[in-house]
Amino acid sequence: MIPRFFVDELCEPGREVDLDGADARHANVVLRLRAGDPLIVVRDGTAWDATLTEVLASGARARIVSAREEAGGELPAAVTVMQALTKGAKFDFVVEKAVELGARIIVPVQCERSYAEAREHKLERWRRIARAAASQARRRYVPSVAEPIVWASALASWKSSPPPIVAYERAPAGSLEEALERACPAPNVAVAIGPEGGLTEAEVEAACSAGCALVSLGPTILRTETAALAMLAALAARCNWW
After folding, report:
1. 202 and 87 in one domain?
2. What is the pTM of this model?
3. Is 50 in contact with 38 (CB distance < 8 Å)?
4. Is residue 91 domain-shared with residue 49, that is, in the same domain?
5. Domain limits for position 25
6. Spatial CB neighbours of 156, under 8 Å, sequence gap ≥ 6
7. C-alpha span between 42 and 114 (Å, rounded)
8. How far apart are CA 111 and CA 240, in angstroms?
């Protein structure tokens, strides 16, 4: 399989672009690539065939050959995952797997029962995880990890239609299917998941006031780090991406 890297520079045939430090080290130390080896670079949704021109311990460069025709790679809808902050390394897991399952934006949300904070070093780590997961999953975009925001503000900040789909253990059976039927034609979709201890009554009321669809994820109670992934999988299946 041809190695794949995201780049930030303008891509066009004949132009040389730099791989960032981590990608250059991976190409040099792990993959042991050398000048002349083929690779794929991706920027803003477009993949390009390229050839390595230089691989050093301090960096790597590649020359763009031509745009690459690729099918799939992205969910039909741009999905935002509003995920309550979690204890320990669980949020790392959510970021990695949500990116693999097609999320475009991940928003860390501070809830009343959240037991963690999104400090700057954590945001930097989550963004690195998102970039690596997008490359591994052969995505065409690097999903963004937004600055943390409180629950009510996260819901209020959503300006697209339909309103966010909120996982809620007391919602009626079949409510997820109904919400997905409304969401699948939309270009932008948001799913929201509460913390380990569940949403408070005030947070549920805020969701209702924002017009959110409260949905059941089945007869079992999922962990917070599982819920977003289950919703993404259901969305992928409902939109015929799978």
Report:
1. yes
2. 0.89
3. yes
4. no
5. 4-68
6. 210
7. 36
8. 33
